[in-house]
Amino acid sequence: MNLRFLVCTLLASIFAAAYGASGADVTSSDRPATFVITVVEPADRRPGDAETFNRIDRVFTEAFEARHWPVKIKVERFAANNPTSDTELRVYFQDIREESPGDLTFRAWMVLFDAGKKRDLGVIRFRSYPRAGQPMQDALDDAVRGAALEAIAKIEPILFPHRSAPGK
Q1: Which helix (H) or strand (E) holds 105?
Q2: Measured on CA atoms in the order 54, 60, 66, 72, is the torsion positive or negative?
Q3: Of 157, 145, 122, nearest to 65 (Cα)?
Q4: Of residues 53, 31, 51, the one with CA closest to residue 41
Q5: What is the DSSP letter of 82?
Q6: Residue 139 · residue 104 · CB < 8 Å
Q7: What integer pLDDT is reported at residue 7 of this predicted model?
Q8: What are the C-alpha distances in Å from 149 to residues 9, 142, 144, 163, 166?
Q9: Which of the 8 DSSP states describes residue 78?
Q10: What angle do CA 35, 41, 149 make, to 5 degrees?
Q11: pLDDT of residue 85
Q12: Is the separation of the CB atoms in 126 and 91 below 8 Å?
């Protein structure tokens, strides 16, 4: 057996095991190199809005990178001069608030743009219940992380149908 053929076969099997598919299913032309998450903030500016964007940036990036998608995750604020992207998740952030005593609810309308197709993911709402004595920063992170995981569960079957859903 040719050594070059053996090495190529071994590398292809490692790649297939890492991505859960055959090498023919995942090519560089199937998915863009960058997945952009654009956060559209409410028009009424309040103190702490910059902190909220930074939290969404950090937590969404962590959650999406944990899925090991073959793309780079980039988060940016919505602005008139944003370059267009082939694959983008637009997050129309609404709020994080207490809807009933003892809970925190993250709410955002999300739209996925994939190769010119607009896919409305709807309003993603995640309710978390902070523990007594839990620092508020951790509780806010938990609410944002829950929403990110719900978004991933809706996006992954569209962009990477050969992968399993989060937590599986």
Answers
A1: strand 104-114
A2: negative
A3: 145
A4: 53
A5: P
A6: yes
A7: 44
A8: 35, 10, 9, 15, 7
A9: -
A10: 45
A11: 82
A12: no
pLDDT of residue 132: 87
77, 93 Cβ separation under 8 angstroms: no
Write down the CATH number for the domain with range 33-159.
3.40.50.10610
Beta carbons of 143 and 96 less than 8 angstroms apart = yes
Structure tokens at 43: 């028009």
Rg (CA), the chain: 19
What is the spatial order of strands in the sheet that 34-40 belongs to?
72-77, 34-40, 87-97, 104-114, 117-128
Q: Mean pLDDT, to the nearest integer, of 42-66?
A: 86
Q: What is the pTM of this model?
A: 0.74
Block residue for tokens 């608030």: 97
- pLDDT value for 28: 42
Task: Give phi and psi for 26, each to the nearest 5.
Answer: -120, 105
- Angle (deg, nearest 10), helices 136-159 and 49-65: 50
Rounded CA gap, 145 and 124, in Å?
12
